Amino acid sequence: MLSWIQQRWAALWLLVAAHGALCLFLYGFFPLKYHSGKLAHMDDLPNFINGVSIDGHEVYNSGENSVILMVIDGLRYDFATEEYMPFMGELLKNKSGCIYVSVAEPPTVTMPRIKAMMTGSVSTFADVALNFGAPAVRGDSVLRVTKSRGRRSVMYGDDTWLRLFPGLWADSDGTTSFYVTDYTEVDNNVTRHLDKVLAPDEKKKPSFDFLVLHYLGLDHIGHLEGARSPKIKPKLLEMDDVVKKIYAGMRTWDRSGILIICGDHGMRDAGGHGGATAAEVLVPLVIIKSDNFQCPHPLGPGPTVAQVDVAPTVAWLLNAPIPGDSTGRILPSLLPVDYRQHLYLLHVLAAHNAKQSLPANTEFYQQFKRAESQFAHFLSTGQESAAKIAKDFYEESLEDMSKYLTETTTDFDLFAIGIAIFVLYILTGALLCVTLYSFQQDPQRKTSVVRQHRSQASTIVAFAIIFFLISSTLLISCFISETKSRFCSFNPIWSIGFIAVSLAVTAGYFVIKSAIERTKDLSALRELNAIDYLLIIGTLFHSWSFFGTSFIEEEHMTWYFFWNTLMFFILIRTIVVVVVYFTKRWSGATEFQDKLDLRDKMSSVGISIVPQWVLLIALHRYLRTMNQTGDRWLFLPDTADWLNAPENSFYLEAHIVIGTILTFGVCLWNVRHMNNFMQMHSALTVCATACVFLYRISTNALDTRYAFLKTYDPVIIVNVFWGLLIFQVLFELATYIGMFTKCGFKPKNNRNKFTYTKPKAKSEDYFYDEMDEPWNFEEVKLNLARSLTHIMYNDMMLIIILLMRPHNVIMVPSIYFTCVLTSKCLDHKFLDSRTARRTEVADVLSQALVHLWIGVLFYFYQGNSNSLASVDLGAGYVGLREYSEVKVALRMGLHAYAGPALAGARLFCALTTAPSITWNQYLQSVWRVINIFALQRVYQLVIYCVIATIFRHHLFVWTVFSPKLLYDFVATVFSMQSLSTIGNIVLLTHVTSWFARLFTYKTTL
Ligand SMILES: [Zn+2]
Ligand SMILES: [Zn+2]
Question: 409, 451, 517, 813: least CB-packed within 10 angstroms?
Answer without folding.
Answer: 451
